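Amino Acid Chain and Its Fold in Token Form
===========================================
Structure side: the spatial fold of the chain, written down as a series of whole-number tokens.
Position: the record begins directly beneath this header, with no further notes in between.
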Amino acid sequence: MLRILPYNSVTFDKGIVIGDAYDVRVTYEINGERRLDFSYPINEKSEIISENKIVVCEGQAYRIIKVSKTIGEKNFIAAECSHVYNADASNIHIQNIPDLIGKTPSYVLGQIFKNTKFSIMTDSELTKVGLKRVDYSGFKIDFFSMDKTNPYEAVKALIENCGKGEIYADNYKIALVERIGSESCLRLDLSKNMKDISIERDITDMVTKLYPYGKDDAHIGSVNSGKQYIISENADIYGVREGYRDYTDYIEPSKILRRAQWEFDSENEERIDVPCVNITGGYADISKLADYADEKINIGDTVTVIDRGNEIRERVIRLEYYPYQSDDTVISVGRVKKDLFFYLEQIGTLAKRYKKVSTTGGKVKAKSVSGVISQSGMKIDGENGTVSLLSDIIEVSTGGDVKTQIGNVNGQFVFNITDNNGNSAVNITDKGNMNFKGDFETEKLIVGDNVITQDSNGVLCINGKRILVEGE
């Protein structure tokens, strides 16, 4: 049964039962819509159903966004609700999220939701529900600053930055995970548990001959035998279908070519040289029967669809079901929108498959393992360390420790060099004086018009003449 609570509730185990609710429908889409809709007869209890209150369904909290009242042959209220993650994360204003360079996605997620009612789930909590953090393998990203945004939009940018990841929300406890759901043995078949199946194959956006362009319309002719296009092997199957893509993130032809090749890659779930397959259908949820509990279907599960004897194995990416009624569940089977090109760039495996190229220039998002550039700065990683050009300061670091800083901070010129222990070795004060700490070694020292050197006998000289020391 549904329960209703005050708008500012943060725990959801109590509440007033609204048992007369009917047509209770839950809609859940991976990384997208998650809503609750229901109707309620107008009576002495219906007044408690009002905007912004919390409604709990199957342990999950939804915020009432819209209430419609109908008076006529049937007098009832229709309520539209959004899950508290979708509703509340969209209505928290963030003035600025700073650059987060070389951080795990989970760390970035924590910064996005800092000082909010949301908390990031721990590894032990995720293990209990059979999930893993998107960065469980340890990969890191560069997340550049965002201004005037909200956590919901920032998470979308984070997922795009990672190239993969799915948001898991258990009310106000959240995590960015590798995937939701599990590998299921469930088979969706018209002869067994499907009321109907609609399988749509669409070539509207299919491209088998691709013209890729980079920044300022840079093309790949110089690195592709003079050809400014690439052709998919599937052109022999589906014919030649020309198209283009703008990759304004890249300026070097070799990088543009590598990005274009990914569009036809067999490991790319969003490859553009095959028809788009969309599967929807009405599912008879027999898991509600005692003997068929293992037939339950969950969002994110990988299932097998039987189409005229052919097996199509894909994930459940959208569910629309009635938790308290026997109405059929409507499911959508397909692939979650992602771009693994950038994820593979982060962990470096793609560089092993195609030729390695250097860091690109121009407007580049924080998705490159070799280097990144944005309007607010640049970061280049090398085997021996990192160089960061952020705004008007240059930083050189090794192993995460900043060794050199040159630039302006708060209107003051900064020049600072640290030793291997992290102690300041050379710095310039706000008065322009340069301080040296530790040993100072040089072949000669020029002071004004005088040159101080050391002769072959190890004696100090000024302008070639020995310096007499008292007692010699």
Observations:
- DSSP finds eight helices and 35 strands in the chain.
- The radius of gyration is 31 Å.
- The mean pLDDT is 82.
- Residues 442-472 form one domain.
